Amino acid sequence: MLVYREKDNLIYKLHPVTVMSYIAVVLLLSLIFSHPVYLLVLFFAVGAVIIASGNADKWKYYLLMASGIVVMIILVNSVFVQNGSTVLFYGPAIPVMGKIKVTLEAVCFSAAMGIRLVVIISVFCLYTYAVHPDKVLKLFSRFGKKAVLVVTLATRLFPLMVQDVRRVTEVQRCRGVKLDTGSLRQRLKNRLPVVKVVLLSSLERSMQIAESMHARGYGSGPRSFYSRDLWRPRDFFVLGALVVSVMTGLAAVFHDWAVFTYYPRLENMNFKELNAALIEMLALSLPAFLNWGWKRWQLLKLKI
Amino acid sequence: MAVIKIKNLTYYYPDIQKPALDNINMEILDGQFVLLAGSSGCGKSSLVRAICGLIPGFYGGTYGGSIIIDHDEVKHMERCELVKNVGMVFQDPESQLVMTCVEEELAFGLENMGLPNNLMKRRIMEVSSALGLSGCLHNYIPELSGGQKQKVALASVLVMQPEVLILDEPTSQLDPVAGEEILTLVKRLNEENGITVILVEQRLERCFHLADRVLVMEKGCIACDDIPQETARWAVRNESSFIPPLAKLFAGVNASSIPLTVKQGKQILIPYTHFPEIKRKKAPGKKQRKIQGKSLVDVHNLWFSYSNGKEVLKNINLKINPGDFTVIMGENAAGKSTFLKNINGLLKPGRGQVRVSGWDTKKVSVEELAPVCGYLSQDPNDYLFLDSVEQELSYTLDNLGLPDDGIIDDVMNKLQLTPYAESNPRDLSAGERQRVALASILVAKPELLLLDEPTRGLDYQLKEELGNIMKQLQAEGTAVIIITHDVEFAAEYAENIVLMAEGSIIAQGSKHEMLTGSTFYSPQLSKLFNNIIDGVVTLEQGKEALVKLMDSGENAVSG
What we know:
The complex is a heterodimer of chains A (304) and B (559).
Chain A: H1 16-32, H2 36-52, H3 56-80, E1 87-94, E2 98-103, H4 104-130, H5 133-141, H6 145-174, H7 184-215, H8 233-254, H9 275-284, H10 286-296, H11 298-303
Antiparallel strand pairs in A: 1-2
Chain B: E1 4-12, E2 21-28, E3 33-38, H1 44-51, H2 54-57, E4 62-69, E5 72-73, H3 79-85, E6 86-89, H4 102-113, H5 117-130, H6 146-158, E7 164-168, H7 176-193, E8 196-200, H8 204-207, E9 213-218, E10 221-226, H9 228-237, H10 245-252, H11 262-269, E11 281-282, E12 297-305, E13 311-320, E14 325-330, H12 336-343, E15 351-356, E16 359-360, H13 366-369, E17 373-376, H14 389-400, H15 407-414, H16 430-442, E18 448-452, H17 460-475, E19 479-483, H18 487-493, E20 496-501, E21 504-510, H19 511-514, H20 524-529, E22 533-534, H21 539-558
Parallel strand pairs in B: 3-8, 3-9, 6-7, 7-8, 11-22, 14-19, 14-20, 17-18, 18-19
Antiparallel strand pairs in B: 1-2, 1-4, 4-5, 9-10, 12-13, 12-15, 15-16, 20-21
Helix pairs in contact in B: 4-6, 6-7, 9-10, 10-21, 14-16
């Protein structure tokens, strides 16, 4: 089922192009930055926007899931990557690899990659809970009309198929079919009729949907596009901040400020190189700041 | 101005030898409200599909004759032109909505017409506010109720501003309240906007009075085309089922005028109610059966909550004896289906106990209960997946480990399925599919039969057949429990009525107690005789009461 639920805050009142641009920029920067401070900036900025959108409770579950993966990455990377010169401790000898050494560099590198993963997962959390899938599809419908319609139909029909499976399973059980007992092979065999009924019903339903589309003139001529999304000053502020963020990010990568050398030895952190990170933080947190002001000052709400 | 002229229309579906439409000739004037009735497979849907160009455009097949809308022949019209003239709302709301959001759904047809954005906004605003959908424009369609979905389907056609609105059984999948709302909306559109309406409908008691003209189809031909009153007389003369109970009652006793609504019926009866000796006589009702011994179903203090914590059944107590015919009624989400699933073991009671044929449903699985307790869900298609009717029946026997001691032939014979034994069930009509699904349950000779909304989408004739089958099973000692919104069906065939609301049984008793004197849960005939003769529920009782009333009135006048 659709998890998107519109809430009364500024993040939900942004134009879909703005939100999608924000998501794209954070994704891009998370892939080109390797400096842990820059990656942490992305994490805090996205986190601030998710909290501002009122989805902190959902984000918590994403973070829990991500933290498990991060621990795994650190463990695997530290054990299997033998690069790095600062040995923290030596482990036992294992076949092929020899004596295991855990280095500070390997731990730091995997921790930074872990932050990158958490940023990416958080961005998907924001996309799932704060962006209406129809609006995103609508953005792309000008370019791939049929493909977008197929995706929309699949989104529309999926809950129906889930209901069908549930209902048909009940019907089969009432006809004496044992779906939960017997060998795996037997259980799979007993479930085949459920699949068959659902497929047959879905085929009939798709014919009916096609008929309804035909009756409403689908494919009868060139289509136009319906859109009620409005551009407001807030969108231009956020898009402006995103432009600043991308420019700063590219400059930081170009000047190696956002690039960090982990191996063979961790490079020294130059705090002057972190000025760009501060700009990134401010630019990418702007939606959260705007939301904060939007909720507190009626005048700001009226103006943006 | 949309005048539809149909001349010598004949149509054959691809690879079918029998014509679906056989030499149809008729004319529908601008602004008329035409009701199209007839049995399943008689050609109603084919006719309306031909008018909106789906036949032959979508279906192919062989087409003869012509349909002319405003001087243009449908088969020569561009599709984008045709959709501006004729809009069609289909039977199942689930199978006609394309998008996930209401606003996008309304825009879909307009986008296909290539309209500019501003015009689309205006039309969507107008239609959504007229149909009361403004508040849910951004809602996710799968989360809407059935009634709201059908309203969205209607709105998505109306935004295209068609001059002719065709509705193919738009209320068959809806509960009575939602169905009533759709029909009222359609009537309003017809009266206030002058839109020509062609309505295909099975529940004639809901819409007979709305129509200016009723067409009855039989075997691809138009058998009757007249005003509703005359159609009622024709139906009685020709023993046709396609007539609502009220009109059938008066036409059946050759009354001089045929009422279409209860109000009109009461006005006709007013002169007869002035005689004090007639007033408030009690109609003869059947005596309640007295049952000795143990109950087949014993529900004691049943409470049930779903895993999300929602409490759906609260303190239910009910006893069902062998040979009982009980109908459970109540609004949507009253817990009726959940109750049925607690009886057949699909759901287990949270508190309390359900015993079926002595088995505690908590301690046995659904599969173990299946030979005792047959269950027919709302959609018969859920049962059909094998290549022949006979295989469907033997599938149940194989699963339950029961022998075929001639029961397959017996059941097929009883449900008139023998000619279709080798046919693919999915190729059969709606009524036949339902009989196959029912047969696949009955081969296990269950002592208890549970049916969830079995009359949904069935025409009068099929309902009559279903009712008679249930009566026959009841006479053989099978206990029948049916969930239905169909008061007329319950009045005609049931014995006991259970009324549920908010997860509790709020009243139960014989149909004569339960279906009389109620404002909404009463059949048309009960409403008609309310405060005149008490206890009238079935058509037979109604006829008896009306004849007596008229005779007494005449005797009083002559005396």
